[in-house]
Design brief:
Layout (H helix, E strand, L loop, with lengths): L3 E10 L2 E11 L4 E5 L6 H9 L6 E6 L2 E5 L4 E2 L7 E4 L11 H11 L4 H14 L15 H13 L5 E5 L7 H18 L2 E6 L2 H7 L2 E6 L2 E6 L1 H6 L4 H6 L3 E11 L3 E6 L4 E5 L9 E7 L17 E4 L1 E7 L4 E7 L2 E7 L9 E4 L5 E4 L3 H5 L2
Parallel strand pairs: 3-9, 3-10, 7-8, 8-9
Antiparallel strand pairs: 1-2, 1-4, 4-5, 5-6, 10-11, 12-13, 12-15, 13-14, 15-21, 16-20, 17-18, 18-19
Helix pairs in contact: 2-3, 2-4, 3-4
The protein binds adenosine-5'-triphosphate.
The site of adenosine-5'-triphosphate (ATP) has 11 residues, from helix 1.
Amino acid sequence: MPELVIDGLRKRFGGNTILNGISLTVRDGEFFTLLGPSGCGKSTTLNCVAGLERPDGGSIRVADTTFVDHATGAFLEPEARNLGLVFQSYALWPHMTIAGNLAYPLKIRRVGRARQRELIDDALDNVGMKHLRGRYPHQLSGGQQQRVALARALVYAPSILLLDEPLSNLDAQLRDQARAWLKRLQAQVGITTVYVTHDQIEALALSDRIAVMKDGDMLQVGTPREIYETPATPEVAAFIGRCNFLAGTVHEQTDRHTVVALAGDGRLRTARAAWAAVGDRVTVAVRSENVLVDAAGAAPSDAYNRLDAEVLASAYVGARYEHRLRVGASTVQAESVSADVAEAASVAIRPEHCMVYPATDQGELAGV
Ligand SMILES: Nc1ncnc2c1ncn2[C@@H]1O[C@H](COP(=O)(O)OP(=O)(O)OP(=O)(O)O)[C@@H](O)[C@H]1O
């Protein structure tokens, strides 16, 4: 399966710049996700790959085939790109059986009847729908229809699979199931896949790598672990998972730590941020699951920061409790498995769980 290379992709609609020169490479056989808030340009990127939009700058190439190159004026028509496409609305033809829906793209490609049957059986087998080949779309559930849409996109062995929020019409439980079989299927077929979603859990669960987008720019590309554990910017940290942001000033640089004086009160040792100088204004990001409340009393002080805290509110949310605490001048969110935090007069945070960034407007982060 080929690589997809996007280089300097630009797109404007009217006076608005939607893509600011995006560059990325999707590797052979990779499950690659474009993740970001609504309107950041994910679908526009995918549509440029599909040939449904013409970019205003940059190029897109798959293996040795140029799909589009603004500099030379090259543009390959969508139907010549041999792509598998699945969108949010599955758009199966209602008057055709499932097998008929899958046969259609093969007929267009002039595949012989016997071979059509083999390919259709294989594709339906892949998605566990072979036994329903004679049914019509209205006789299937939403989840089953989505499987058929995927089988139809795979039946003619496309070079790349493009999926735009394909699971968003399914209810929560079906979505979980669909996620599991989609990941299995993609690995089994080994097809290079670009997936668009604004759902962070979906992105983390499915992807080999994720590109986090905002306002037509790419903020970070990395594996799910890299994106979650070492977000490149506070915006990435804010968009994925639950994160606290604490304002402060660099107080001291030691061999191993950067010590931050928090606004209000308290000091926080963080993993050393080599770029920071004493006196710099910084934003420290800490995931809410890394703010320990119930273990605070037991945490050895050399391995943890200990900060005075006041519990403002606690809520039971099923598998855990969520707490709002006042720490210095900030409100901090924390999680615990035990309800027993009423006495907590401090929180414990490991230095390596504190991520330091140049000072960022906290109001902007709230809007991510
Ligand atoms: N054909 C168009 N004409 C004008 N503006 C458009 C067009 N298509 C998209 N846009 C605008 O471009 C921006 C990016 O849209 P896009 O669909 O790429 O975002 P997205 O990240 O996929 O968001 P969502 O998750 O909501 O689909 C939006 O502000 C949208 O309104």
